[in-house]
Amino acid sequence: MIMSKRLLIILLLVPVLTLRAGDDKAWHLGVEGGVDVEKFKVNNEIFSAGNRLGWFVGPKLKLKIPLVGFGLDVAALYHRYEMEYTAYDLNDYEKSAHMLAVPLNLRYDIGLIKIFSIYIATGPQYNYAIKEDKSVYQRIDLEKHSFDWNVGAGFDLFKHFEIGFNYSIPLGDKIQLNGVKLKGHTWNIRAAVFF
Predict the structure, then answer these.
(1) What is the rounded CA–CA span in Å between residue 49 and residue 37?
(2) Beta-bridge mates of residue 31
(3) Which of 11, 21, 56, 141 makes an SS bond possible with 66, Cβ 3.0 to 4.6 Å?
(4) Tell me, what DSSP letter sits at residue 154?
């Protein structure tokens, strides 16, 4: 019984992973990276130290359904968050947290010309807290498991380079500071290279 279920799954996955539309592959594997920012500004302040909240990097798989524009993307991203806070002694402190983020997005690509397209994407993201640097001044805890909902857009060049932005909406509490639960809405700017 177990063997027949595995065989059925393999038989269903092989056509999906080998679909082709002309010379286009139905799937692309690559690497994605980016930075989290507090405010999304279209100027040089977007990458300023006071606006940065962290960075991420990891493998990404992009699947598309030929001829209709819809597809999926999934990634496994190492995510490092940086938090700054003022303690009860009125001094400023920093704390970092390390997470594994797994976004799964439904996307729609609009091909404007053969080498350039734009996309919109939305979907859930699972976050797993791997490690956090402990603070001796205030009790700050990341939730071990949390979920976000992502909404984003961007553009694709030559079907191998992708640049976009994303807004993450927490689906529940993400951080506790001295017992007070906080959310943690973030913007991020991302880039990916596909092979």
Answers:
(1) 9
(2) 59, 193
(3) 21
(4) E
Look-up of token digits 């994407």: 121
27-194: CATH number: 2.40.160.20
Q: Report the DSSP pairing between strands 77-86 and 140-142.
A: unpaired
Q: Residue 162, class by beta-carbon neighbours within 10 Å (0-12 exposed, 13-18 middle, 19+ buried)?
A: buried
DSSP SS3 for 3: helix
Q: Which pTM does this prediction carry?
A: 0.73
Tokens 């059925």: give the residue: 8
Pick from 156, 129, 158, 153: nearest CA to 141: 129
CA distance linking residue 111 with residue 5, whole number of Å: 37
What is the C-alpha to C-alpha distance for residues 140 and 176, in angstroms, rounded to an integer?
Answer: 6
